[in-house]
Design goal:
single chain, mainly alpha, Growth Hormone, Chain: A, globular
Length: 219
């Protein structure tokens, strides 16, 4: 007889990662645990960067500004995730809201509890991503509601950007850099996530919802 060596046993986690064991008892817990771990890493790792203040001028300073604040970065990721799950038209809603918020800030607009509202906007966009899918987004009312939430949320972040932008000199270059990095993160996230399974998009949306919740309590 020919001796056949024993085959190595896979870890129970492997079928979960590969999506092979749909009836595994840990299946229902795998997504929430993964999302919670991601949210904790994002929230705790970038929380010190949430503090806002007057930014330095220049294109590079503007480009880096949305990437260095936890609230701004999570909002950009939330928009990209929502656009990948629902509709790429949300990117246009976000652009419109950002422009309105930026212009409003130069005109002296402000809101109470602005940082708390900015964090709540992350929670709202992430929650809509979890509730609705592309089929549901075909409904006109859902499109308008989701677009309005995204536009209002980005407008709030635009107001914050306006308070932090350099007051004079190369402020226009700063705004150009901030817009460029925002488009790169939102658009890049949307395009990448459209190529992955919906489970991944839902996991990221859940992580962003939790991360936004952390920032709400920290604001």
């Amino acid at each position: 007889m020919c001796w056949v060596p024993p085959q190595p046993e896979h870890s129970p986690v492997v079928p979960l990662l590969l999506g092979e064991d749909r009836d595994h008892p840990m299946k229902r817990f795998f997504l929430p645990i993964t999302a919670f771990a991601a949210a904790a890493s994002i929230g705790l790792g970038t929380l010190p960067a949430q503090a806002h203040g007057l930014a330095s001028g220049g294109t590079m300073a503007g480009f880096l500004h949305p990437l260095l604040g936890a609230d701004h970065l999570l909002m950009l990721l939330a928009i990209g995730t929502a656009a990948s799950q629902l509709s790429l038209q949300l990117l246009l809603w976000a652009l419109g809201g950002g422009v309105i918020g930026a212009l409003g800030s130069t005109g002296g607009w402000t809101l109470p509890l602005l940082e708390t509202l900015a964090a709540l906007a992350i929670v709202a966009v992430a929650a809509l991503t979890l509730v609705w899918n592309r089929r549901g987004s075909a409904d006109r009312a859902i499109q308008l509601l989701t677009g309005g939430v995204v536009s209002a949320g980005v407008g709030i972040h635009g107001l914050l950007h306006g308070l932090e932008a350099p007051p004079e000199g190369n402020g226009l270059l700063w705004w150009g850099g901030a817009l460029l990095s925002s488009l790169v993160v939102c658009g890049g996230t949307a395009l990448v996530l459209r190529q992955v399974p919906q489970t991944w998009r839902k996991a990221l949306a859940l992580a962003l919802l939790m991360g936004g919740g952390v920032l709400v309590f920290a604001s």
